[in-house]
């Protein structure tokens, strides 16, 4: 099933026959808990917003070998974790807003995002997928100059609008092999990333197990799983997002996010 949100936070669901509104008293935690989904009237071409605002967002850096090589960094021996603030989340069509007084090296990163559906603490890799509600797409927008100057990644990853999510959550049963999904990015119509989740250094079950060993995961938490090669900051010459650009990110089986880039007036 594909689950999205429309203006006002109202949930819509598509079981293959088109989007329908869910009852007003159904929210995402209720869906995750298995409450029956008695959809109501059809919704043609819903104007989707971010499918959820996570309780916490855990990012995984350096999780694709080609990306590690293009960044010129050593291969990690365990997942490289960082936090991304929920206040950075936007949805389809919303602008990525750049403040030129803060950053001039804004980069794109298409990623598969895991949506946790059950409380998870110290779970084994063998049982990890049982804690997944579904998957969505993400653009882990990154201010590379802030990452470099800070020596850690929270500020450069968490600026407002720097986490487009969506367009929908696809439930786990609809994606039997999350390690076989194509990830692509276009900037102004030019394809700049084209990779596959099979190239992850640490797979989805390992990431869930690792994260849950350190902090309890709760329904609605999101894990961003890393990006394949093709980020602009590591091109020759480097490329960065600028006001007027359109960045599109796509996770196979989930859909495409399109976000214009605008400037914050200073």
UniProtKB/TrEMBL annotation:
<comment type="similarity">
    <text>Belongs to the FAH family.</text>
</comment>
<keyword id="KW-0479">Metal-binding</keyword>
<dbReference type="InterPro" id="IPR011234">
    <property type="entry name" value="Fumarylacetoacetase-like_C"/>
</dbReference>
<feature type="domain" description="Fumarylacetoacetase-like C-terminal">
    <location>
        <begin position="56"/>
        <end position="261"/>
    </location>
</feature>
<dbReference type="GO" id="GO:0016787">
    <property type="term" value="F:hydrolase activity"/>
</dbReference>
<dbReference type="InterPro" id="IPR051121">
    <property type="entry name" value="FAH"/>
</dbReference>
<keyword id="KW-0378">Hydrolase</keyword>
<dbReference type="InterPro" id="IPR036663">
    <property type="entry name" value="Fumarylacetoacetase_C_sf"/>
</dbReference>
<dbReference type="Pfam" id="PF01557">
    <property type="entry name" value="FAA_hydrolase"/>
</dbReference>
<protein>
    <submittedName>
        <fullName>Fumarylacetoacetate hydrolase family protein</fullName>
    </submittedName>
</protein>
């Amino acid at each position: 099933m594909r689950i999205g949100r429309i203006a006002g936070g109202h949930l819509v669901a598509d079981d293959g026959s088109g989007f329908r509104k869910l009852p007003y008293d159904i929210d995402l935690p209720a869906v995750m808990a298995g409450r029956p989904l008695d959809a109501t009237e059809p919704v043609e071409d819903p104007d989707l917003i971010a499918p959820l605002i996570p309780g916490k967002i855990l990012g995984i850096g350096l999780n694709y070998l080609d990306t590690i090589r293009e960044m010129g960094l050593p291969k990690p021996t365990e997942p490289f974790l960082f936090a991304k603030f929920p206040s950075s989340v936007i949805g389809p069509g919303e602008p990525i807003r750049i403040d030129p007084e803060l950053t001039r090296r804004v980069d794109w990163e298409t990623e598969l995002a895991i949506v946790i559906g059950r409380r998870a603490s110290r779970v084994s890799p063998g049982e990890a997928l049982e804690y997944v509600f579904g998957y969505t797409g993400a653009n882990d927008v990154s201010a590379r100059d802030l990452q470099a100057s800070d020596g850690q990644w929270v500020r450069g990853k968490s600026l407002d609008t720097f986490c487009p999510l969506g367009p929908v959550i696809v439930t786990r049963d609809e994606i039997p092999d999350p390690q076989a999904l194509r990830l692509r990015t276009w900037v102004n119509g030019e394809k700049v990333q084209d990779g596959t989740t099979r190239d992850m250094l640490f797979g989805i079950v390992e990431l869930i197990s690792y994260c849950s060993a350190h902090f309890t995961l709760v329904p609605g938490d999101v894990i961003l799983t890393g990006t394949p090669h093709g980020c602009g900051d590591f091109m020759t010459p480097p490329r960065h997002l600028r006001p007027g650009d359109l960045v599109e990110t796509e996770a196979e089986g989930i859909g495409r996010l399109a976000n214009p880039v605008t400037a914050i007036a200073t």
